[in-house]
Amino acid sequence: MVVDEIKTDKGRDDFVRFQLDHYAQDPNYVPPIVAERREFMDPKHNPFFAHAEAAFFIARRKGRTVGRIAAAVDSLYNRFHRTSDGFVGLFESQNDPGVAAALFENALAWLKVRGVSRVLGPVNLAFHHDCGVLVEGFERPVSMMMAYNPRYYPWLFEANGFVRLKDMFTYELLTSQGLPEKVVRLAERVKEQGQIRVRRLNTASPEHDIRRIKAIFETMLKPGFGLAPMSEAELTSVVQRLRPVILLRPEMSLIAEADGEAVAFSLTLPDTNQALKAAGGYLFPLGLAKMLWAARGIDRVRVLLFGIKDGWRRRGIDALLALETFKQADALGYVAGELGWVEEDDKLMNRTIQATGAQRIRTYRIYERPLLS
Q: pTM of the entire structure?
């Protein structure tokens, strides 16, 4: 077996395609679009690489790919959190401890040279991308922008010196069960007071609203763990990528304002994973048509982002946004929505979500491992 760092278009193509082969027999796996994943890995196309660097490794046995891994160092993340952390992610491996050990050995050696003192993972390639090892909730396909993996992955991480750092939860809310009466009453009271106005995101020209959302989001960030501020270029990239999905159902992307000031937001999108699965990883020659046809049957939504500005929490704005989103989702015929992820020690957010009647359906785990000098 050999492990090679890949740097060419052909190498990136092999890196992505292994994932499709690896999960070929798993009915719950949703393959990504290969062309999009290639661009995600390419510094010429992904603005993440303006403040970060990454290396991508493939393990081959007798010429056949048997595993892959990425290692990344994000200077923006480390400045914000005052750390010298590195990430491992995009990890895929056969159920073979030798393959996993070789992949981790190469990734950790690359990180060590760059002065990393602690490794977190899996992070693909940043916390605002998908991250975490799925440890509970394998029974059905995951929602959009959520990680998926075989059941044995936690063991491969732990066998290579990684220990549990934190778990993160996702929740499901069924439209058939309705919102609890106390949530509805609180939302109606906030609405009647007239201080808070809820409106749709401006989909004709969303850039201004997205920047206001970014400003709210950054007031919520705290040094310590997880998310860090995004660069302006990354924000623009996210807007361009999400805009077609937002336009499918703009009724569920909401901003709450007080006297014209944006104080909260909630972005809920159709769960495009239900359609993406039909494409089989390729848009052409038939994948796009299959995906568009399958999109007609999307019956679930994903609460992708939710936030309330510092100083405006505990005023019932969360209940108001939940009610307005729920009404729209129900009217549009969606049967369920997935919310997450939520860190296990974020007691306020977990209580807020549980108050809506949502049930926890998945658990993701972030591991850490020290790198000794």
A: 0.93
